[in-house]
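Input structure tokens:
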């Protein structure tokens, strides 16, 4: 073996959604099983049904078996690497059990050197997701991330065996430190070359190999990794013996600095930078949890166009491909380890456990035994990604420790305030006293937080530890906040001043906030707040308990198919300096506004109405099709100082942004068919009354094809629907969707009825042709 070899074990596997004894045996006959392509999610293949749980999107779980025959690498050392299996996986090679892996989000690896056979081998994986409501959101089921076989010599760098940091950076030079582990290093020599983004070697060093070796390099005129210029370097590590190369390992990294200041916020490469972030769950809509890289690429491009520069992976570690893309595209990442610790959450009601049933038992049952291993495996796999700038040890954990929740006073019978907009009912002194006197329970939140932070810092001290705190007033006093380098607030913008006053040494930021102007206003008015992560960047399946047929939580800036929503354009006006105008309409009756004919006032009747607007943006349309004379509320989202509205060329008035406290321009307009246009000095937008559907317009973007009904003039038709049937040559259909949270049509299909006259097709591969047919209408690309 002269160097490292890797075989992807993605692609065709045999699959059975059932539980069979003996299916792990190498000689087991799987000829009757169906073929599937891994990465694979079997839940998303099913039909939506209200027989299942809304918490996980009204789709089933179950037990499934996967089997694959492969040829060995015939190397001295062989590793089997899984990036993620959901969940409770049992792995067998040639009938011999390698081990179990309960957590569905952490990568894992087996050294199979003494178990792999020369020639043909059989890998079998049993996945037990019978507890299908074990989460508060859609998880998917199966081998939904990449699998690979890695072969090396006996002397080699193990999987995840390097760690690159950049501890000192100036304008003219950077220190790059590379730590390398080597198995069986006796007599071996290590050589490391640093390769710049342009492919040129900029530094090299050689030394005797040790079990753990450290190298320092000086890189002149470093090209920094930044959200606007994500420059990537490589450290190419060569292991040689007797002058021959026996292993080679390439580590991609970025040169950048991160710093949080308790008074001045966040700095990237020494420059003050607002964190303009969004939270994302891991599903990709119609493709479920097995998300192709190109699906994330399209979504990230759209979010970045609105000014998004950061992603919080909520509430679990992301895939390696996801992080690769964030590295390449310049997106900061908060990598989050866990949604549950010692005590479980109720998967249906989102707080303390209230349903002690089989299907809803989650990771808590494995936390005591597996948490350290899972956390450290995630870190070892992910820590070279320059996009990662925070490690989050937990999300909204406080609810699950009863005395912490009770101490805050939010659950007192005589308190009737608004959690989102009012300070904690109990003072700091009251909370401290109650934490002393209330029953402790089996586990202490502060002790667990300290343990998780300790494990994190054993592997990486170059990034801060953070957590998303739903009850920060309690967390400041319970010991939880003492474990953190930065504290994140979940929907508690009202507490920014409280937190800064009580713990002026601890940087604060929003880690889960609403996509609304007042949330961002609260941040830019306070220099000590670093930024926010909005809930959410994209609609996600699940967390729709008891709301059938709502299969999806509609809190995103983008819908499930990646189409832009009203909140997207609002945030784009706040997070992007380029002039932007976006025009929407809605009947006055369905809008949140009242209109006074005498004064011309249109707006909220209640001045505090914004306090009642939570996760889902109010319903707006991007069409101009109503009944003649019907009163329409027209909204314009813009960062321009003034906007003028025109209907069929006639001005309906010039308005000033400063006159709208919520930064939403508003007009009340009697409908007349034709063209409605909003115009500012440097940007404009328009809506035109559409006629009957006369054609289908197809637009391709990577693995995506969008179909939109249009009239004879090419105007999008958004008020009439058709079933569209797709015919695809040269590629495999992965899914179809409309993006509507109420869509319960099968994703795994070649047809779908549109919503707003449009739908999305996702394919695998590069099709030679795609045809869309809707009755007499058809179009091909």
């Amino acid at each position: 073996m002269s160097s490292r070899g890797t075989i992807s074990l993605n692609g065709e596997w045999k699959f059975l959604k059932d539980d069979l004894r003996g299916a792990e045996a190498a000689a087991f006959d799987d000829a009757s099983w169906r073929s599937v392509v891994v990465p694979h999610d079997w839940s998303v293949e099913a039909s939506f049904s209200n027989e299942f749980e809304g918490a996980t999107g009204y789709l089933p779980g179950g037990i499934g078996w996967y089997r694959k025959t492969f040829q060995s690498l015939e190397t001295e050392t062989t590793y089997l690497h899984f990036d993620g299996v959901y969940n409770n996986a049992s792995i067998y090679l040639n009938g011999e059990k390698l081990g179990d892996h309960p957590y569905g989000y952490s990568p894992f690896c087996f050294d199979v050197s003494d178990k792999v056979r020369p020639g043909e081998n059989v890998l079998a994986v049993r996945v037990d997701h019978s507890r299908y409501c074990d989460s508060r959101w859609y998880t998917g089921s199966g081998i939904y991330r990449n699998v690979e076989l890695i072969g090396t010599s006996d002397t080699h760098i193990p999987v995840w065996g390097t760690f690159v940091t950049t501890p000192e950076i100036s304008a003219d030079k950077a220190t790059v430190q590379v730590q390398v582990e080597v198995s069986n290093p006796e007599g071996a020599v290590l050589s490391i070359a640093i390769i710049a983004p342009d492919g040129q070697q900029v530094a090299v060093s050689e030394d005797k190999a040790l079990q753990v070796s450290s190298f320092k390099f000086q890189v002149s005129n470093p090209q920094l990794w930044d959200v606007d210029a994500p420059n990537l370097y490589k450290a190419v590590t060569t292991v040689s013996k007797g002058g021959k190369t026996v292993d080679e390992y390439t580590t991609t990294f970025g040169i950048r600095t991160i710093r949080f200041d308790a008074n001045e916020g966040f700095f990237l490469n020494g420059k003050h930078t607002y964190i303009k972030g969004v939270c994302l769950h891991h599903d990709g809509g119609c493709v479920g949890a097995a998300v192709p890289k190109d699906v994330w690429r399209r979504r990230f491009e759209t979010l970045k166009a609105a000014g998004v520069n950061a992603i919080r992976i909520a509430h679990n570690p992301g895939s390696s491909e996801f992080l690769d893309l964030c590295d390449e595209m310049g997106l900061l990442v908060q990598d989050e380890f866990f949604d549950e610790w010692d005590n479980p959450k109720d998967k249906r009601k989102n707080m303390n456990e209230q349903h002690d049933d089989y299907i809803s038992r989650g990771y808590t049952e494995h936390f005591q035994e597996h948490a350290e291993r899972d956390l450290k495996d995630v870190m070892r796999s992910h820590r070279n990604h320059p996009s990662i700038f925070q490690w989050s040890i937990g999300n909204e954990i406080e609810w699950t420790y009863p005395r912490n929740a009770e101490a805050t006073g939010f659950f007192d019978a005589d308190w009737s305030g608004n959690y989102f907009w009012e300070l904690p009912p109990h003072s700091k002194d009251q909370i401290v006293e109650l934490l002393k006197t209330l029953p402790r329970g089996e586990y202490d939140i502060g002790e667990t937080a300290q343990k998780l932070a300790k494990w994190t810092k054993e592997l990486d001290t170059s990034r801060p530890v953070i957590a998303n705190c739903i009850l920060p007033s309690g967390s400041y006093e319970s010991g939880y906040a003492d474990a953190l380098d930065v504290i994140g607030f979940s929907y508690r913008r009202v507490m920014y001043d409280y937190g800064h006053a009580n713990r002026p040494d601890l940087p604060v930021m929003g880690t889960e906030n609403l996509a609304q102007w007042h949330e961002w206003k609260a941040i830019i008015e306070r220099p000590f707040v670093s930024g926010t992560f909005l809930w959410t960047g994209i609609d996600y399946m699940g967390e729709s308990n008891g709301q059938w047929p709502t299969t999806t939580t509609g809190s995103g800036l983008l819908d499930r198919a990646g189409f832009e929503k009203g909140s997207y354009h609002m945030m784009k006006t706040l997070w992007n300096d380029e002039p932007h105008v976006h025009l929407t309409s809605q009947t006055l009756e369905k809008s949140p506004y009242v209109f006074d004919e005498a004064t011309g006032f249109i707006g909220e009747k209640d001045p505090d109405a914004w306090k009642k607007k939570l996760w889902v943006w109010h319903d707006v349309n991007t069409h101009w099709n109503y009944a003649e004379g019907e009163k329409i509320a027209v909204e314009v989202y813009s960062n321009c100082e003034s906007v003028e509205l025109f209907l069929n060329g006639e001005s309906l008035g010039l308005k000033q942004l400063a006159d709208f406290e919520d930064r939403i321009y508003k007009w009340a307009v009697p409908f007349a068919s034709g063209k409605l246009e909003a115009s500012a000095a440097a940007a404009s937008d328009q809506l035109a009354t559409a006629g009957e559907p006369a054609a289908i317009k197809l637009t391709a973007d990577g693995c995506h094809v969008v179909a939109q009904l249009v009239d004879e003039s090419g105007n999008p038709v958004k008020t009439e629907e058709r079933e569209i049937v797709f015919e695809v040559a040269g590629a495999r259909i992965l899914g179809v969707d409309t993006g509507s949270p109420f869509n319960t049509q099968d994703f795994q299909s070649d047809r779908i009825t549109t919503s707003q006259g449009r739908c999305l097709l996702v394919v695998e591969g590069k099709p030679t042709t795609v045809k869309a047919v809707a009755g007499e209408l058809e179009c091909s690309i």
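The mean pLDDT is 96. The first helix runs from residue 293 to 305.
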